[in-house]
Amino acid sequence: MMELLERIKKTTYVLNEGSSSWSSPSNIAMIKYWGKYAHQIPANPSLSFTLDICKTETSIDFKPGNGQGISIDFLFEGKTNEQFELRVLKYLKSVTQFLPMLKDLHFSIKSSNTFPHSSGIASSASSMSALALNLSTIYNELAEEKLEKADFLRLSSFLARLASGSASRSVYGGFTVWGESEFFSGSSDLFAIPVENEGISPVFQDLCDDILIIEKGAKKVSSSAGHDLMHNHPFALKRFDIARERMGEIRDLMANGDMEGFGKLVEKEALMLHSMMMTSDPYFILFKPNTLSVIEKIWEFRREKGLPVFFTLDAGANVHLIYPSEIKEVVKEFVRDNMLVYCENARYLCDRIGTGPKNLNL
Ligand code: DP6
User: Fold this and answer.
1) Of ligand 1's atoms, which has the minimum distance to the CA of residue 163?
2) Which end of the chain has the smaller Cβ count within 10 Å, N or C?
3) With contact defined as beta carbons under 8 Å apart, do 216 and 118 qualify?
4) DSSP H/E element including 269
5) C-alpha to C-alpha distance for 47 and 38, rounded to whole angstroms
6) What stretches of the chain adopt beta strand conformation (E)?
């Protein structure tokens, strides 16, 4: 990575106007990232799969600036949004140390999500990966020495990580790993890598994720504040060790096609994530009574039907129902008859494992 960054920094470029547009999906972690050090270095490796439907589309028109440094105008879902604009501007300024050409540009950015902003679904992974992919494209448009695909994606993941850790994993489709792990060769704290399909039994290559919207309101505790609370957490070091070990366990379960073992590990991870929140100082509980009701129903369904339906949770109350697509029809019925009463306005989204971001200008 360092060699790539050096090369990028030294390249000569010609300032021009142009445009770039990417759509990038969100992702759902099986092994969770919770806790980080300075400069967005994760306290433990994480593994996720990239979604298909829940995504952000971001287009950027760029042109040489007025010589006063980086400037932007920003529209989110067609409207100005000062909070997002300031966050993006701050981020762009911070990455000029890696991409010096950015500081001589003006950006007109338009961004929108395919899922409602207030659905409680993490949009930082999709929005920040879409932004990062656009930055790599802008680099390639202006730089004399263009990046090949592998370097392009690595740079995008590196830049996405600096905006939001989980965004680093959305740059690739399928399963991805972010954070150094002895079980995934080439893994790094600085960027995510794709997990090759050869190492994964086919049953995992077609997973569905039904997102049950238990509560659509914005999160009460931001991820960043949550990560911070791991610094003085009494169980933090143990948690990081367990997560590191679980990377090996999940790799083997996926290689061996052990759906049952995989699902149970994924549920243990979700509950451990929330138990970290419940035992931090200050402590908090992000799930709701309906979250627990849904979990009980899932366990009951699994016991009665013997079908591989599992849950995971993000830093919120919503439940992700994870299952292989071959049982889609029976799960649909189960969700309709047993889950929707627990969802806000009976809302849920059907997503699945996806193939990764798309360059909309191609
Ligand atoms: C619970 O990536 O949102 O979803 O790096 O501060 O932007 P920042 O945090 P973020 O954290 C995601 C935490 C999680 C687990 C995961 O996705 O691995």
Assistant:
1) 7
2) C
3) yes
4) helix 259-278
5) 21
6) 18-31, 36-37, 41-42, 46-64, 71-76, 79-80, 105-113, 175-178, 192-194, 207-212, 310-313, 319-324, 348-352, 358-359
Q: Which two tokens stand for residue 152?
A: 């392009």
CA of 132 to the centre of ligand 1 (A): 16
Is the distance from CB of 27 to CB of 123 less than 8 angstroms?
Answer: no
Strand 71-76 relative to strand 175-178: parallel, antiparallel, unpaired?
unpaired
Rounded Cα distance between 314 and 200, Å, is 24
What b-and-e string marks burial along 123-155, b requiring 16 or more CB atoms within 10 Å of the CB? bbbbbbbbbbbbbbbbbbbbbeeebeeebbbbb
Indicate the pTM of the whole model: 0.96
| CA end-to-end distance (rounded Å), the chain | 27
Sign of the torsion angle spanned by Cα atoms 277, 220, 167, 7: negative
| pLDDT single digits (tens) 239-255 | 999 999 999 999 999 99
The preferred substitution site among 24, 27, 33, 123 for testing ligand 1, maximizing ligand atoms within 8 Å of CB, is 33
Q: What share of the chain is helix, strand, coil (3-state, %, to 5)?
A: 45, 25, 30
Q: Which atom of ligand 1 is nearest to the CA of 161?
A: 5
Could you give the CA distance from residue 27 to residue 172 in angstroms, rounded to a whole number? 10
Q: pLDDT tens, 157-197? A: 999 999 999 999 999 999 999 999 999 999 999 999 999 98
Determine the residue type at 358: K
Q: In the structure encoding, which two tokens stand for residue 315, read together?
A: 């830093």
